[in-house]
Predict the structure of 3'-phosphate/5'-hydroxy nucleic acid ligase.
Amino acid sequence: MSYVEMPGAKVPIRLWTDPASVEDGALQQLRNVATLPWIKGLAVMPDVHYGKGATVGSVIAMQGAVCPAAVGVDIGCGMSAVRTSLTANDLPGDLSRLRSKIEQAIPVGRGMHGDPVDPGGLHGFAAGGWDDFWGRFDGVADAVKFRQERATKQMGTLGSGNHMIEVCLDQSNSVWLMLHSGSRNIGKELAEHHIGIAQRLPHNQDLVDRDLAVFVSDTPQMAAYRNDLYWAQEYAKYNRAIMMALLKDVIRKEFKKAKPTFETEISCHHNYVAEERYEGMDLLVTRKGAIRAGSGEYGIIPGSMGTSSYIVKGLGNEKAFNSASHGAGRRMSRNAAKRRFTVRDLEDQTRGVECRKDSGVLDEIPGAYKNIDQVMEQQRDLVEVVAKLKQFICVKG
């Protein structure tokens, strides 16, 4: 479909979905965003749903301002994927050992490495800029300085919630590795620190929603936020790269005879800010639950722990600020999912997938998510499908 346009206070709201399918709370959040004095455009992806601060699945283009709550607290959260030389014929009948080896190599949930991972010891990991990156930790907000040790030990860890590591097959029976994670606790604490500062600034006192507090250009608060934001986005990118290197190492060891090789990694943020130019304006584009889909750019759009995911190539649709959805999107809250579904439902909906099937991940049940194939259909003018993947192993925190 192409987009549906709804009127907004300062800019129209362009939706790549049926407005009637969007819950009232999310629609109100979008209307609130459209009232911001600095806004120049608002695009809404088909995975749209209510979020804390700002709607998940929204692309907000502003001039001279950025809203930290519209980035979200998992700064730089995103996806990485790589195609391997392995095929379905190389796989063992029992996948539990492989899942166990992955969980041993990569801490999940709140877990962390006993000692920081040395990227120099990782096969094929490009560690250029690593020392400079950690050197810049001295320049981030003092409020999080005491978290440095934790941040170093969480580098290369998964987290919980919708974060996952998957081993998948595409439609030609090639094995893919895929993972989803962000900037871990350090990103969350930096985000919450800056959201708090923004909410106290005088120019934000008359906003319709205090969660939409912004920083404006040429102020020390904006400079400090952008410094910390870009550092956290880099942390998230390194975090995924290290996890992928650890995951590849597991695959090499477990499939020694097949001597697996790996193609070029695809990686994309879906909670972040980028400086981009549209209609002659230099804008700060915030994607919360959206990926960049510029012409020819590769991206990853996952489903849920029991459904398909997609490798895509962007079509460069400027009406959507060169964006696409970040996944299927939730159709019910975590608490609603726990009330609605049982562990038996989870077992049924993840049949054929080697994964956790217990109450601890019930809120991640596929039934709590929108239909990924319908979401893909709604954004045919934003991306083209390169590969359709289906997981046979899913690791959750």
Observations:
- The CA atoms of residues 95 and 153 lie 28 Å apart.
- The mean pLDDT is 96.
- The longest helix spans residues 220-254.
- The longest strand covers residues 383-396.
